[in-house]
Specification:
The protein has helices at residues 2-20, 37-53, 68-75, 91-96, 133-142, 157-169, 181-189, 200-208, 232-235, 256-270, 273-281, 292-313, and strands at residues 26-30, 57-61, 83-87, 109-124, 148-151, 174-177, 195-199, 213-217, 243-251, 285-286. By secondary structure, the chain is α/β, with parallel strands linked by helices. Strands 1, 2, 3, 4, 5, 6, 7, 8, 9 and 10 form a 10-stranded mixed β-sheet that branches. It is globular and about 65 Å long. The termini are far apart.
């Protein structure tokens, strides 16, 4: 009898949580500063979800420490759906900072939905004497240590792409870390660094304006969303490929009905042609998950592979 009463009480509490959600503005945190792909994706998604939820969705930038500052803030937030996280896979900061995290990345969050999927682009400053990937590789090998590569943060998709490219092409750059893709791109524009792997929203405007030279898209056959830039096969490094995604997460313990409401809002927003066009214009694709459970299964399956990748490449916070 007590078990039945407990179950009924829990169901009533969950229903009440779902009915009262959202109780006010929703905070969407990201671990990067303004100007990069995560910031762009979060703001586009927040605008769309606000229309679905009927409340403001406010983006908060908490950059630093491989996205762990933002992740820690969300992990410690009340599990009521009012605070969510837009991030890549939590296995990456786990591999980067094993034993140093204030939260358990595997248990601190509930996956809500995948949001967008994309790839990175290698761009160089106009002073670099290379108009193709082959010319860049040849120059780097002939001038070891001369090229400084900007990175958008330890464990970010651009950082992993950069380290993977070094291994695939047999070159070595001096990597300088910044707190996001925006500051990293600005360093290349200023000539403080000479090259950058960047998520496409970060640099598409600079490419179109002729301020940065694109040499390769980090996909074997290129990307239809980023036309005119060769893929790694055409560019001469066929074994190289590096893609990324952004997903929405809630704190562990968030009621299932609230997680489902967040998923419905994200999925509906990402299904709108106008929002999808905005994402596609920046070289990414809107890729909402079929359900929170489907996204959770994808995250669980991908985690061990990403951990092994990060450790094998030696990418770490120094």
């Amino acid at each position: 009898m007590r078990t039945l009463l407990f179950a009924l009480s829990l169901a009533a509490t969950t229903l009440a949580s779902a009915q009262s959600f959202p109780a006010g503005p929703v905070r969407m945190m990201i671990g990067y500063p303004p100007g990069g792909s995560a910031d762009f994706t979060a703001r586009v998604l927040a605008e769309g979800m606000a229309k679905e939820l009927g409340v403001a969705v406010l983006v908060e930038n908490k950059p630093g420490a491989g996205t762990t500052i933002a992740s820690d803030a969300v992990a410690k937030a009340r599990p009521d759906g009012q605070t969510v996280l837009l991030n890549w896979h939590q296995a990456i900061p786990k591999a980067l900072l094993q034993g140093k995290l204030a939260y358990d990345p595997e248990r601190a969050f509930v996956p809500v939905s995948r949001v967008a999927t994309g790839t990175t682009v290698l761009v160089v400053h106009g002073s670099v004497p290379a108009n193709s990937l082959g010319e860049l590789v040849a120059y780097a090998k002939a001038n070891p240590g001369k090229l400084n590569a900007a990175s958008g943060g330890h464990g970010s998709a651009p950082h992993l792409a950069l380290v993977a490219f070094e291994a695939a092409a047999g070159v070595k750059f001096t990597i300088i870390q910044y707190k996001g893709g925006g500051p990293a791109a600005q360093s290349v524009l200023a000539g403080d660094t000479q090259l950058l792997f960047a998520t496409s929203p970060t640099v598409m405007g600079f490419i179109k304006a002729g301020r940065l030279k694109p040499l390769v898209v980090a996909m074997r056959k290129g990307s239809p969303a980023i036309p005119g830039i060769p893929g790694s096969v055409q560019a001469g490094v066929p074994q190289f490929e590096s893609t990324f995604w952004f997903g929405l997460f809630a704190p562990a313990g968030t009621p299932a009905a609230v997680v489902q409401r967040l998923h419905q809002a994200a999925s509906a927003a990402l299904g709108k042609s106008e929002l999808r066009a905005k994402i596609e214009s920046q070289g990414m694709d809107a890729t909402p998950s079929a359900s929170p459970e489907a996204f959770a299964a994808e995250v669980a399956a991908e985690g061990p592979q990403l951990e092994r990748l990060v450790r094998s490449l030696g990418a770490k916070v120094e």
